[in-house]
């Protein structure tokens, strides 16, 4: 199987990564609302905060469903600086909201400092920045963890913090806390699917347990399985109960099955762009050119944090 993984790596380096690098230069630098992914409520919330209309922003946030809240938080926390959130906290009567945004901002800054390499490949400066920002992020989020309205989002975000700090028991704890509040929280499953991989201290038993416990929500099933498929190919791991010689056929069959299902029943959630990203990358890896072209177009140049990372 070594030849297959070598081919996959070459395809990713020669085709997927260059497209992404060109995209970063062209799209994100020109579009200050990029991480809104066209979501009107995220753009409106960002405008309200920029104009210091904090009560208006908080009202918009209070009306968001779980998926749109996550996207809105990422939009603002990735495109605004620390001082904006500090000013918002100072002026706000509902400080848990800007504290949530600031905590996520610090977490994104931590990953920007660290990068996504293995621990041994991270520079001293990168590691130092990572842990400093992580500490600030956790401090903000733990202050508001038990907030009745935003506890689900806070717990889900803390999963990412503790994964980066190699505290897998804490990841388990906050995964459970998140799905107790909302069993259909997509990001909880995707983050957990990363945390239970060997790279972060997990193992196949935990992966199997996750796959067996997926809820009925199709978007969760699709994204979780595609994430494990793509990560497995990248890491030369077989995360599914099939013989190694059948991995490519199983993966191709999975992509085609998901394509058929979502063509018949399109996904409406803003997180469809995560699904499209995984479909595009998996298709590219598996030489499914027509599917790659289809999902690259459906992405509309919106490259989600999973699978593409912070820009």
Question: How would you explain this protein's 3D organization?
Answer:
It is built from 16 helices and no strands. It has helices at residues 2-28, 40-50, 54-62, 66-79, 82-91, 96-114, 124-143, 151-164, 168-181, 186-195, 204-212, 218-235, 247-264, 272-285, 289-299, 305-308. It is 71% helix and 0% strand. Mean pLDDT is 89; it is low at 1-16 and 19-26. The protein is globular and about 60 Å long. 41% of the residues are buried. The longest helix is centred in the N-terminal third of the chain and has 27 residues, at 2-28.
The poorly predicted ranges are: 1-16, 19-26
**Helix count?**
16
- Main sheet: strands, sense, barrel: none
- SSE string: HHHHHHHHHHHHHHHH
Distance between the terminal alpha carbons, to the nearest Å? 32 Å
Give me the Rg, rounded.
Answer: 19 Å
Overall 3D geometry?
globular
- The fraction of residues in strands falls at under 5%
Secondary-structure-derived class: mainly alpha
Estimated helix fraction: over 70%
Mean pLDDT: 89
Number of strands: 0
Fold blueprint:
Layout: H1 2-28, H2 40-50, H3 54-62, H4 66-79, H5 82-91, H6 96-114, H7 124-143, H8 151-164, H9 168-181, H10 186-195, H11 204-212, H12 218-235, H13 247-264, H14 272-285, H15 289-299, H16 305-308
Please outline what is shown here.
The chain is an all-alpha fold and 311 residues long.
Features:
71% helix; 0% strand; 311 residues; disordered N terminus
């Amino acid at each position: 199987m070594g030849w297959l993984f070598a081919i996959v790596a070459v395809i990713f380096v020669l085709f997927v990564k260059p497209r992404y690098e060109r995209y970063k230069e062209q799209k994100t630098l020109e579009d200050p609302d990029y991480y809104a992914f066209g979501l009107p409520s995220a753009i409106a919330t960002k405008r309200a905060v920029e104009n210091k209309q904090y009560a208006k922003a908080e009202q918009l946030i209070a009306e968001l469903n779980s998926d749109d809240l996550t996207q809105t938080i990422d939009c603002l926390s990735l495109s605004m600086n620390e001082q904006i959130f500090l000013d918002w906290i100072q002026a706000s009567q509902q400080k848990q909201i800007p504290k949530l945004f600031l905590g996520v901002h610090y977490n994104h800054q931590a990953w920007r400092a660290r990068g996504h390499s293995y621990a041994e490949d991270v520079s001293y400066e990168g590691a130092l920045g990572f842990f400093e920002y992580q500490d600030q992020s956790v401090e903000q989020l733990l202050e508001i963890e038990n907030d009745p309205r935003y506890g689900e989002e806070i717990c889900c975000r803390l999963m990412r913090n503790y994964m980066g700090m190699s505290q897998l028991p804490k990841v388990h704890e906050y995964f459970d806390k998140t799905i107790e509040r909302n069993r259909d929280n997509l990001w909880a499953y995707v983050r957990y699917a990363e945390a239970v991989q060997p790279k972060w201290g997990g193992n196949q038993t935990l992966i199997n347990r996750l796959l067996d416990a997926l809820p009925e929500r199709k978007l969760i099933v699709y994204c979780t399985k595609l994430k494990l498929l793509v990560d497995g190919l990248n890491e030369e791991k077989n995360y599914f109960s099939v013989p190694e010689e059948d991995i490519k056929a199983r993966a191709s069959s999975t992509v085609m099955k998901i394509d058929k299902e979502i063509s018949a029943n399109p996904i409406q959630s803003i997180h469809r762009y995560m699904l499209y990203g995984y479909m595009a990358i998996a298709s590219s890896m598996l030489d499914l050119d027509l599917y790659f072209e289809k999902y690259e177009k459906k992405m509309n140049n919106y490259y989600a944090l999973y699978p593409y990372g912070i820009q």
